[in-house]
Design goal:
The chain has 12 helices and no strands. It is globular. The protein is an all-alpha fold and about 290 residues long. The chain is about 75% helix and about 0% strand.
């Protein structure tokens, strides 16, 4: 496997644990605001701590903070959009809409001349998205759709595309841990506004705190993988590979929560994995980087 693909795939796997882990916390009394604020704090703190311990500068003179405030705001806005949409539509519909960010990013970066827009890129991106829709069983959860929920999920998709692009631009010249520390510290400040909607409620049992701990570990490791992964392969390819996240989510839900998967979900996994293998092979071949 190409070395540059290992970290993004590991990030997708780590992010994939989050839904099942957070569900444990919710079942034991925690609310989403507590989990989001706690995990975001740890994501920011771990990145800042890593930078401090490794001597990476965070506050040197002459820093242009505009991209970092933009990235932090977009990170927070994507979370607001997802949370808001889940009030009105089902999780599988929200997930499917949010994952359209890869197609948006492809078109945006192609318009700027930063990636090639060809049939392979378009087809593999769309097939992977269709695979995601099967993995999350979107067609079995289309009842009672509300336009406001669709709009909020679409907003989350747009800002997710935007934040990945901003991350990618900054990572061209700045250390991934530094970019992540700055972005997530600012995102945490914006996310504190969540307490205006509801008070954070922690879990009421040890099992619930285990869920919070696993959620935090999932997102901390995934966040490191995201920034280092984008630095290695670019924003678009990372966005495409992170479509493995729902595949890992389904597998973790089966393992942790004993959820039963239906045949269409397994077929969706094959579509996602197959499309990503085809795209990775095509990219390696076109760039002359195939092993052997």
């Amino acid at each position: 496997m190409k070395a540059g693909l290992i970290i993004p795939i590991a990030a997708a796997a780590s992010f994939g644990l989050y839904p099942a882990a957070s569900q444990l916390a919710y079942q034991e009394g925690a609310n989403a605001i507590f989990v989001i604020l706690f995990t975001t704090f740890l994501r920011a703190a771990s990145l800042v701590g890593f930078c401090v311990l490794s001597g990476k500068p965070l506050l040197e003179k002459g820093v242009n903070w505009r991209p970092f405030f933009a990235g932090g705001f977009l990170q927070a806005a994507s979370i607001f959009g997802i949370i808001g949409s889940l009030v009105y539509i089902s999780g599988p519909v929200t997930i499917t809409i949010v994952f359209t960010h890869t197609t948006m990013l492809l078109l945006f970066m192609a318009a700027k001349g930063e990636v090639r827009l060809d049939r392979v890129a378009i087809l593999t991106t769309l097939i992977a998205l269709f695979g995601v829709s099967l993995v999350v069983d979107v067609f079995g959860n289309l009842g009672n759709l509300k336009w406001i929920g669709i709009g909020l999920a679409s907003l989350a998709a747009v800002v997710t595309m935007g934040r990945l692009y901003v991350f990618g631009q900054e990572l061209k010249s700045i250390d991934p841990a530094v970019v992540g520390a700055r972005m997530f510290s600012i995102a945490l400040l914006f996310l504190l506004a969540l307490v205006l909607f509801d008070a954070p409620v922690p879990p009421n049992s040890g099992l619930g705190y285990l869920g919070v701990a696993l959620s935090s570990l999932s997102l901390v490791l995934g966040t490191f993988g995201m920034f280092y992964g984008i630095a290695l392969i670019g924003a678009f390819q990372f966005s495409l590979l992170v479509k493995l996240e729902p595949v890992f989510t389904a597998l973790f839900s089966w393992f942790v929560l004993s959820e039963i998967l239906n045949p269409s979900q397994y077929f969706g996994m094959l579509l996602v994995v197959g499309s990503l293998i085809v795209y990775s092979y095509y990219e390696a071949k076109s760039q002359g980087t195939l092993d052997g």
